[in-house]
Amino acid sequence: MSQTMAEGTPRTRAQIKERTLRTDRWWRSPLVVFLALTLWLLYGLVRTSSQKYYFVEGYGYLTPFSSPCVSASCVPGARHFGTWLPEFPPLLPYGILALGFLLGFRLTCYYYRRAYYRAFWLSPPACAVREPHGKYTGETRFPLIMQNLHRYFFYAAVVISIVNTYDAVVAFFGDNGFQMGLGNLILLGNVVLLWCYTLSCHSCRHITGGRLNSFSRHPVRYRIWTFISRLNARHMELAWITLGTLLITDLYIALLSAGVISDLRFIN
User: Looking at the domain assignment, is residue 8 inside a domain?
Assistant: First the structure.
């Protein structure tokens, strides 16, 4: 065993002489991830900074990108939790209170780390593929040491999911009582899937049962841990599905608010 390995702190990454030992098109996966995440981030940046078409009057549809909308700049109907902040200057997202925590939750997510490490940093680009980085410090230095905040971002994500749930529920009740349209179903479906993604988090699984030495002594927590473990097995799929549902929900509300399309109504 070399001195470096004996110390347990390898100074360089494992290297191979060949550029790759793969014979398949290994580059397709990181390329697709790179393009998908880049396009989604660009869409989110444009939408959150536009301060337009975020709420549908009459139906109470509020996009998750602008929730909670507590600025004086928000239209009165979108202020489900009151007015805490003054008017925002141009380009400042109305949902700024939540967006930072949600971005932190996604960025520090175990699956997303793997995805963008490979797709953006080529660290590593794929198994059995030579990478351009010579040194390896892991997540022990800034900024990657911030990945250890994931469990705290999880708590914030739970609170924000409750806020999104309230937004979805309150939209079912208008001036004329109970109402339902396609937008309500989209909002509700998005919230359900967001809960599934949030609860499937590895930190949530650890919180519910990770420290138990005997499941038989904690039957309720064992059942919860079992349920979370089933969701956890789908964490990667839910990570991508919820990006899709967030985009669809926001786009649908934007098109309704801009008058491009009409909502399909079922009740009122």
Answer: no
pLDDT score, position 122: 83
25 is a domain residue: no
Helix (H, G, I), strand (E, B) or coil at 176: coil
- Lowest mean per-residue pLDDT among 14-23, 107-116, 182-191: 14-23
CA–CA distance, 105 with 220 (Å, rounded to integer): 27
> What phi, psi does 126 have (nearest 5°)?
-175, 165
One-letter amino acid for residue 130 of the chain = R
pTM of the model: 0.87
Into how many domains does the chain fold? 1
Is 187 strand, coil or helix? helix
Q: How far apart are CA 222 and CA 219, in angstroms?
A: 5
SS3 annotation, 4-69: HHHHCCCCECCCCCCCECCCCCCCHHHHHHHHHHHHHHHHHHHHHHHCCCCEECCCCEECHHHCCC
Burial of 11: CB neighbours in 10 Å, binned 0-12, 13-18, 19+: exposed
Residue 200 within a domain? yes
* pLDDT > 50? residue 5: no
Q: Which residue has the higher pLDDT, 136 or 13?
A: 136
In a domain, 14, yes or no: no
What are 172-226's pLDDT values in tens digits?
998 888 999 999 999 999 999 999 999 999 899 888 888 778 888 888 988 988 9
